Amino acid sequence: MSRLLLCVCLCVVVDAAIGAERRPNVVVIMADDLGYGDLSCYGARTFETPEIDKLASGGTRFVSGYCSAATCTPTRFSFLTGLHAFRRPRTGILPPNGVSPITPEDETLPKVLKRAGYKTAVVGKWHLGLGQPGEGPDWNAGITRGPIDFGFDHAFIMPTTNDRVPSVYVEGRSVVDLDPADPLYTQGPNVDMSQPSGKTHRETLRMDWSHGHNQTINNGISRIGWASGGEAAMWRDEDVADRFAAEACGFISRNATEPFFLFFASQDIHVPRMPHERFQGTTPHGFRGDAIMQLDYTVGVIRECLEDAGVADETMIVFCSDNGPVLDDGYKDGAVEKLGDHKPAGPYRGGKYSPYEGGTRTPFITYWPGTIPAGEVSDLVVSTIDLPRSLPALAGVTVADSSFPDSENRLAALLNEPGAEGREFVVEEGIRGCLGLRIGDWKYVQYQDKRALSPTAKTFSKKAGHRFELYNLADDPGEQNDLIDAHPERAEAMRTRLEAIVAGR
Ligand code: NG6
Ligand code: CA
């Protein structure tokens, strides 16, 4: 064999080996509080969301796509651990100094992908706790028990939410731009609780609060919780979306030659909605609509970064939301007054906090040019809780049977492959122990609004003022016509099934 021929042969073999090893990147874009009806590709008519619509027209749009809970922390917890949040304490909405419900021993989606050679990153809203149990986050000494301990190589996050202190970014274990001469405190004796607050200086605020949110003021907006110091590190709400997009693009371009997993957790459209000036006034719906414009723009930036890095055809994007929509979530931003004919939850009942469909049935799009069929609509049931098993399958990684117990490998459904099957059932976790269970067209709801109640307490009863409801979504997608008395046996069967799921049977 001539030298040249040998080289050609070897090169082809090496090339093929590299080709076979090249595993797709994954970008999960999770919006915050975005409802089923909040995008033009899901029926919004009073504004356009061209960038997210591009994902839908170039990929597959799911009409039965769910997040696992109707608030942020539990959905994110389940997305990373494949475990229903109701199985774990501290998975309710975390306060500013809350520590993580995830433990360093837990298996997580980023850990699995990292072991398989992926570079892993989270950029955006975290809201899954920081710091040691009993202590909380120490902003000045290096932050423990955060994303870096749960499988992320890189983290550029907002610690909780934009309406909770502190209004800073954390990169890795450190607060970005923190001046050591001006340490940051959110608990303990160094916190000055006599500082001007949303209560004492209400007339100075740029956006008034309607409930809660009347403590520390940053950027003219009062928030949940007290913070002192760290002045140089404080962000301006208007700049957060652009900063997160830039950080995401930086991660993509730095890692274009190896497989990566990016969890992009947008803070849009959570309150306080204060989009960048260039988006203000771009919709008829006030800042809630304008924040949707900002989210849409950000999604476009990330898609373009993937294209610029030359990896668009090797990257699967999953676009989803962490819970359904809410109008007044604590600030007077005109969302109620300027709603007009817009329907944030589309045809569905309820929204954020609720076990009805509007609480968890949310936009869900998968996009992978050349691999996922373009412009298709799927009615298979898919959920964010299935990503911990489905995404490793995409990377060719086996997940231990004992890991991610509530997660199912639904990769074929996410890729919209012929003959794929969706989930047989989906649990919809509302607040205060409210649960919904959908099986096929039937929806069972255990609802109580008076007292906090653990779903494992098994003390749901009519006597205690709890409600049990049953709907047929095929005839009644808006859950208006309670069939519990007409179909007591079906309701009982679904109640028993839900009890078994909650008990982990
Ligand atoms: C609630 C807040 C709400 C929002 C929510 C968390 C009040 C009165 N309400 O307690 O504004 O922050 O928590 O939202 O403070 S989530 O999307 O992060 O779950
Ligand atoms: Ca949320």
Write up what this structure looks like.
With 505 residues, the chain is α/β, with parallel strands linked by helices. Helices cover 23% and strands 15% of the residues. Strand 16 and strand 17 form a beta hairpin. The N terminus is likely disordered. The chain binds 2-acetamido-2-deoxy-6-O-sulfo-beta-D-galactopyranose and calcium ion. The site of 2-acetamido-2-deoxy-6-O-sulfo-beta-D-galactopyranose (NG6) has 17 residues, from loops.
Quick structural summary:
The protein is α/β, with parallel strands linked by helices and 505 residues long. Helix content is 23%, strand content 15%. The N terminus is likely disordered.
| Helical segment count | 10
Q: Can you count the beta strands?
A: 18
Between the first and last Cα atoms, what is the distance in angstroms? 64 Å
Q: From the helix content, strand content and strand pairing, which structural class follows? A: alpha/beta
Low-confidence stretches: 1-20, 449-460
Kindly report the spatial arrangement of strands forming the biggest sheet. Answer: 7-6-5-4-10-1-11-12-2-13
Helical content class: 10-25%
Strand content is: 5-15%
Tell me, rounded to a whole number, the average pLDDT: 93
